[in-house]
Amino acid sequence: MIATIRKVYERYGFSPLETPALEYVDCLGKFLPEADQPDAGIFAFRDEDDAWVALRYDLTAPLSRYVAMNPDLPRPFRRYQVGPVYRLEKPGPGRFREFYQFDFDSVGTNSMLADAECCMVMCDALEALGIERGDYVVRLNDRKVLNGVLETIRSDGAIENRTAQDVLLTIDKLDRIGIDGVTQLLGEGRKDESGDFTRGCRLSPGQIDVVTKYLMAEGATRAKLCDALEKLVGESEVGRAGVDELRQIDAALASAGYDEDRALIDPTVVRGLGYYTGPVYEGVLTFAVVDQDGVAREFGSVFGGGRYDDLVERFTGHKVPATGASIGVDRLLAALKTLGKVDTPATTAAVLVTRLDKNLTGEYQRMVAELRGSDLNAELYVGNQSIKKQFKYASDTNKIVAIVAGSDEMGAGEVSIKDLRLGVELSKEVGADRKRWLESQPAQFKTKRENLVACVKEVLARYGGPSRNPA
Amino acid sequence: MIATIRKVYERYGFSPLETPALEYVDCLGKFLPEADQPDAGIFAFRDEDDAWVALRYDLTAPLSRYVAMNPDLPRPFRRYQVGPVYRLEKPGPGRFREFYQFDFDSVGTNSMLADAECCMVMCDALEALGIERGDYVVRLNDRKVLNGVLETIRSDGAIENRTAQDVLLTIDKLDRIGIDGVTQLLGEGRKDESGDFTRGCRLSPGQIDVVTKYLMAEGATRAKLCDALEKLVGESEVGRAGVDELRQIDAALASAGYDEDRALIDPTVVRGLGYYTGPVYEGVLTFAVVDQDGVAREFGSVFGGGRYDDLVERFTGHKVPATGASIGVDRLLAALKTLGKVDTPATTAAVLVTRLDKNLTGEYQRMVAELRGSDLNAELYVGNQSIKKQFKYASDTNKIVAIVAGSDEMGAGEVSIKDLRLGVELSKEVGADRKRWLESQPAQFKTKRENLVACVKEVLARYGGPSRNPA
To answer: C-alpha angle A266/A267/A270, rounded to 5°?
Structure first.
């Protein structure tokens, strides 16, 4: 999966970079949704010089630090990176405190072309993994539009920056609590099923109405939705800038042939992280899966990103516009497993050379060396158990062929080759032709020692050949 | 480099595994050389439940924890793993507090065949990376031999376990402080260049003499060195067991054709980590490099490992013998760079489609899509700079070809293709034939739009074709 995605990133000219898992806390910033609790959500501790060090919670903040420290990088600086990130929180089902992200970013350009490209890369990556068009969609929005909408209602009661942030985080919960929940949280507050009360943003009913209209905005095409949003932002300068950015992204997507079946504008997409400044996007798998409560629901977001024009400035004082996106590797892997699109082989070697007679180990070593020399992954049994347990080991580790040779066989210049799959195959219900074919394939046969490699390859060919080994 | 090593590990039937970077401190143990300072050398902190959590300092302790938690794994359990590990210490030159290890292990077998295999895998991996036979050697020893030697001198004054451990750590410093330094540290102590005094193991002169004899033991072959060691361990049971293990490894190496030019027995190899119980080995690069003080010295150890039969028992109470080895990835990479055996390309895309006229962006997008569709890594310039700066960007990012098309060219159904390397090539001193060849290759030429892909491939072919892109 990683290799496939890497290929797509490289197709677009992104190059690999690695940064350390540990950063000084100052360099990480506090851009997680829980921004008001210092150090909340991250693994932080003091190093031997008493400096605060933490495990990265994403790959974007470290990238910004890296760019700031290397001012001579070409601009745009286009890199990809894959690695674990860490969040100190109780993870939900199927989520972990250590998980993999796989990012690509363009740093040093304010062109919306770079944002459009993020959406295209997401589409290409998902399709390269075998997810069919229609089973996924990229949902796209611009935070400036929401800010514009909030500006229009500022006269109708003070909407401070603080409240604007709360509104954004409230909208980010739409998937979980639904539009009614969001409406309650935009007002006085909301009591959840457990009876816990969450204080709301305390907007007036008129203000809530405007935000709700924004969330419900619709259009048959991206262009028409932009028209609708333009009306909602009225004279707000930031709002109009946001709509203009969406129009530019729309145009770039359209001329590259990424139409509404692959990339939609969706006003409800805001993304929780605090550093996004303009366009935001997420790749969503739209097919239904049954969750742990037995309810069928959309698989959901596996890819997310956006523009963060102010993040590098934190380190340098110079504005360096940037945009990028990130895959949640573990979630995407779970999705691919659900779809049966990924195969995790239990073993890398298809051949086991057994050690029937420990005194013949030198001979067995020469056999396994010969197999390896012929481009086969082959394992020599290095345990001390009986031949029966060796066969069990071969089947437990998913081998296809076992080689057996005792002193009699060796004396006659022969070895035995055992097809470990054939028994399993024979036990399956098969048609007459297939049955005849199987019966013509001996499950174990002797051959001259010098034919070892050829015969092993012959048996492997019954099951797709040695190429079945992962690269 | 990682891919090459992975292939060797898989040839032997090792399969990939990943474990988290964070472990509970109890699971890591204290097997670093600084074992007497609890938590020294590791990044440890408390999680939200107040449990002590730490970053792994190697991949072996987490593997043992994993095996203990998964009792139904096939035995031997043979896995490889690559990933960062962390040590909280002032790193020496060329070393880091976060660095990569690349391990392979066989867990659940006490057969010396598994240890011999470790040595063979080391040799094969180094040769697969292009390091020639003679430029490396695997040095092999068994801790039980040293323990046996110490037993023989126990009657000549108490050699407690504690002292035995000190002797081992003293020998581990041989590379740095030389045999004289070791002799001093085996006795009363040693004053280093800075005048600091380190307290010694306080062995008697007679005891020191025996240990020195052991360190100086020689033999023309592995077998003959075993004979010499056998004399030194006398009647010690553990010592004789150690020599016997070395003989078994020698036999397995010999029958696989790994002779003294590749794998030596070296009594001075002890490896610092506290969990090794028997055979230990390291892969050493023997060619000279000039260090930061201008002194030529052996590049040194890039690979190390050994048997750790007691580590899994710590978690389960059941003895699970195990053995394995680990590459220091960063050091090996540095070695390969020194040898010119590794090439780190600055970029993954060889082609840049420039944007001379921003109004033609849609056309440029179609061009870049066509190139990508023809299996080329191609980048669309997504910045907002002039064409001159775009060419500088192309050269800064190591592109080979730039595509340029203004409205005139587009109107005539043409594009310009610029060979960015040709100028550089022309400036080099060349023979008459080569010069004529270069002159026949236009540095920039126009072609029909429909010939874009073919012409780009033609130019790339001048420099080894698109395959120059890393996979």
So the answer is: 100
pTM, full prediction: 0.77
pLDDT for the residue numbered A297:
76
Question: Which of A416, A418, A425 has the alpha carbon at shortest distance from A451?
Answer: A416
pLDDT computed for residue A467 by the predictor? 45
Closest C-alpha to A377, from B6, B115, B107: B6
Kindly list the strands in the beta sheet with A52-55, ordered across the sheet, starting from the edge strand earlier in the chain: A22-24, A52-55, A44-46
Between A23 and A133, the higher pLDDT residue: A133
Nearest CA in chain A to B394: A74
Asked whether B399 and B377 are in contact (CB, 8 A), the reply is no
Of A89, A256, A366, the CB nearest to B369: A256
CB A140 within 8 A of CB A259: no
Percent pLDDT > 70 in chain A is 88
Which residue, among B1, B8, B11, would best test binding to A if mutated, counting the most A CBs under 10 Å from its CB? B11
Tokens, residue B448: 């029909």
Give the gap in angstroms from C-alpha A207 to the nearest C-alpha of chain B. 39
Q: Do residue A383 and residue B252 have CB atoms under 8 angstroms apart? A: no
State the Cα angle at A224 between A218 and A227, rounded to 5°: 95
Q: Among all residues of chain A, which has the CA nearest to that of B113?
A: A382
Q: What is the pLDDT of residue A245?
A: 98
Task: State yes or no: cis peptide before B442, omega within 30 of 0.
Answer: no
A191/chain B closest Cα distance in angstroms: 26
The nearest CA of chain B is from the CA of A362 a distance in Å of: 5
- For residue B453, CA distances in Å to A468, B352, B367, B402 come to 33, 13, 9, 12
Name which residue leads in pLDDT, A56 or A159.
A56
The answer to whether B107 and B75 have CB atoms below 8 angstroms apart is yes
Comparing A210-224, A450-464, B330-344, B417-431, the range with the smallest average pLDDT is: B417-431
Residue B199's identity, in one-letter code, is R
Model ipTM value: 0.77
The separation between CA A285 and the C-alpha centre of its own chain, rounded to angstroms, equals 12
Radius of gyration of chain B (CA): 29
Question: What is the C-alpha to C-alpha distance for residues A262 and B441, in angstroms, rounded to an integer?
Answer: 43
Which token pair is A296? 């069928």
pLDDT of B431 above 70: no
- What is the rounded distance in angstroms from the CA atom of residue A72 to the CA atom of residue B189? 51
Confidence at B35, pLDDT banded by 50, 70, 90: very low
Please state, in angstroms and rounded to a whole number, the distance separating the CA atoms of residues A397 and B77: 9
Phi, psi dihedrals of residue A293, rounded to the nearest 5°: -95, 10
User: Which residues in chain B touch residue A12, judged by CB atoms under 8 angstroms apart?
Assistant: 349, 372, 377-380
- What is the structure's pLDDT at B425? 61
Q: At a CB cut-off of 8 Å and minimum separation 6, what does A190 contact?
A: A177, A181, A184, A197, A198, A200
Contact A453, A370 (CB under 8 A): yes
Residues of B in contact with A45 (CB under 8 A): 43-45
Say yes or no for a CB contact (<8 Å) between A348 and B15. Answer: yes
Distance of CA A364 to the CA centre of its chain: 43
